[in-house]
């Protein structure tokens, strides 16, 4: 049981790290001479010029939704870990980890919503902005975007593991 708990703790910490990297790092959409994330767009022609995505951009509300759900997912994952540690020693068998599982699955849902919105709306962005050349089809989804989907899978598996683990001694 101790090895299983150690594995779950490492798995959960890995999930949280993936969420932090996907939320913070700037490689959601990359191409030759530019990279973008949910916070800013950077052009790297001669040097790196970054423009923060704010209310000047017509797709700002879409990006706010992605930002908010990624932040919510990261916070929920961290809260689930703290609750896991508290429940580990406080609750009796059968009652353990249900709340942790629910919160972790909510984190999973949040990151899925964020990545889905970004996937869907990324195609519409290039038609709505003077900096549209940055979002042409010549770019590709970057590693932060992929990490967000991997974090979705990890948080989902972690949430299910907590449900299964609640009956173990």
From TrEMBL:
Record-level GO cellular component terms: apical plasma membrane; Golgi membrane; membrane raft; nucleus; perinuclear region of cytoplasm
Cross-referenced Pfam families: PMP22_Claudin
Signal peptide: 1-16
Subcellular localization, as worded in the UniProt entry: Apical cell membrane; Cytoplasm, Perinuclear region; Golgi apparatus membrane; Membrane raft
Membrane spanning residue stretches: 65-85, 97-118, 143-165
Gene3D superfamilies: 1.20.140.150
One GO biological process term: cell adhesion
Family membership noted in the UniProt record: Belongs to the PMP-22/EMP/MP20 family.
SUBUNIT field: Interacts with PTK2; regulates PTK2 activation and localization. Interacts with ITGB3; regulates the levels of the heterodimer ITGA5-ITGB3 integrin surface expression. Interacts with P2RX7 (via C-terminus). Interacts with ITGB1; the interaction may be direct or indirect and ITGB1 has a heterodimer form.
Function text: Functions as a key regulator of cell membrane composition by regulating proteins surface expression. Also, plays a role in regulation of processes including cell migration, cell proliferation, cell contraction and cell adhesion.
Protein name: Epithelial membrane protein 2
Species of origin: Molossus molossus (Pallas' mastiff bat)
The organism's taxonomic lineage, starting at the top: Eukaryota, Metazoa, Chordata, Craniata, Vertebrata
